Amino acid sequence: MKLSTLLQCSLLSLVSGFSHENLHRRTSSCDPSALNTTVGTYYVKENETISGLSRITNRGICDIARLNRMADAMIPLYTDQKLLIPPESCQPDNSTCLTVHHPGATYADCVKGGPHTYYTIKGDTLRYIALKLNLTTEALQSTAQGDNVDAEVEAGQFVKLPQCSPSTCSFHPITFTYGTYKDIADKVGATVGQIMAVNPTYNYTSVAKGEGAVITVPGSCEYTGSNITVIS
Ligand SMILES: *[C@@H]1O[C@H](CO)[C@@H](O)[C@H](O)[C@H]1NC(C)=O
Ligand SMILES: *[C@@H]1O[C@H](CO)[C@@H](O)[C@H](O)[C@H]1NC(C)=O
Ligand SMILES: *[C@@H]1O[C@H](CO)[C@@H](O)[C@H](O)[C@H]1NC(C)=O
Ligand SMILES: *[C@@H]1O[C@H](CO)[C@@H](O)[C@H](O)[C@H]1NC(C)=O
Ligand SMILES: *[C@@H]1O[C@H](CO)[C@@H](O)[C@H](O)[C@H]1NC(C)=O
Ligand SMILES: *[C@@H]1O[C@H](CO)[C@@H](O)[C@H](O)[C@H]1NC(C)=O
Predict the structure, then answer these.
(1) What are the Cα distances from residue 160, in Å, to 69, 117, 118, 129, 192?
(2) Is the beta carbon of 78 within 6 A of some atom in ligand 5?
(3) Cβ of 204 less than 6 Å from ligand 4
(4) Domain total for the chain?
(5) pLDDT score of 6
(6) pTM here?
(7) Ligand 2 center to residue 52 CA distance, Å?
(8) pLDDT at position 210
(9) What does the alpha-carbon distance between residue 44 and residue 62 come to, in Å, rounded to a whole number?
């Protein structure tokens, strides 16, 4: 794919609402004409991580994640998995697609508007599932099995989630062409965990390049009363 095509894709993404500012911003010390604008393909080696791949290719973690439409950049890579390598950028983005704990952040006791279950994926821990759903780990532990919140949980399990009652979300299908769930979540007022939970079969490794994957996105999740209780 040529850069012009990629820019078009970014523009399309912008139109459909998922912006990618970093590709366009430039620093004075960076010479754009010296960048490697080739979009390459890469086969992941055993135990390779996206951080390692970012370093050896000099591409931003989030730039890689977005071009490959990863639900979350932190889902472990598979050996021999084929990845697209984005063009080099003067502003490589290693951070804005990540769901991380910020000191002083507050978390909720329940999920607003559903869904009621989360389907675990490779690399999940209870702490990370809670973070993705903007829940306290205590709230998640009230409905999920497991005492050690940092132990990796087996992939492919349903985990029950505490629900806020009364609350609601609206759900709508979109064609996911570029970005990560974090980009979508921040825009629609839902969490990465909610989008994962309503799309348990989404697997970017099996979606063809150029064709969007259709996912369902929860949005406008809110309380619908003033006396909120946690139900499960
Ligand atoms: C440019 O990037 C592509 C894709 O990662 C890579 O295959 C190629 O070797 C790079 N070219 C140079 C000159 O580094
Ligand atoms: C990958 O990680 C596993 C588990 O830590 C280890 O047994 C294996 O030797 C590693 N493989 C390579 C190629 O580093
Ligand atoms: C972040 O991106 C830059 C530029 O691609 C890369 O050189 C660097 O190693 C990355 N950082 C991490 C922690 O992967
Ligand atoms: C997470 O939950 C807290 C407490 O309900 C709330 O103040 C905050 O806005 C939520 N953050 C997100 C990203 O949903
Ligand atoms: C996604 O697809 C890859 C390759 O087809 C497969 O190895 C992996 O197990 C799948 N992941 C999930 C969560 O289904
Ligand atoms: C709030 O809802 C709970 C559960 O439905 C009920 O037991 C409680 O009386 C309600 N409190 C108020 C102030 O309405």
Answers:
(1) 26, 5, 6, 11, 16
(2) yes
(3) no
(4) 2
(5) 41
(6) 0.85
(7) 15
(8) 63
(9) 17
Q: What is the structure's pLDDT at 8?
A: 40
Residue ranges, the chain, pLDDT below 50? 1-27
Q: Which atom of ligand 4 is nearest to the CA of 134?
A: 1
Same domain for 126 and 81, yes or no, is no
Residue 193, domain extent:
117-231
Protein residue with least CA distance to atom 1, ligand 6: 227
Give a yes or no: residue 220 inside a domain.
Answer: yes
- Which pLDDT score is estimated for 59? 96
Q: 96 in a domain, yes or no?
A: no
Tokens of 184: 């979508």
Tell me: do 167 and 227 sit in the same domain.
yes
pLDDT at 3: 42
Report the nearest atom of ligand 2 relative to the CA of 46.
13
Name the closest-CA residue to atom 10, ligand 6.
Answer: 227
Question: Which pLDDT value is given to residue 212?
Answer: 79
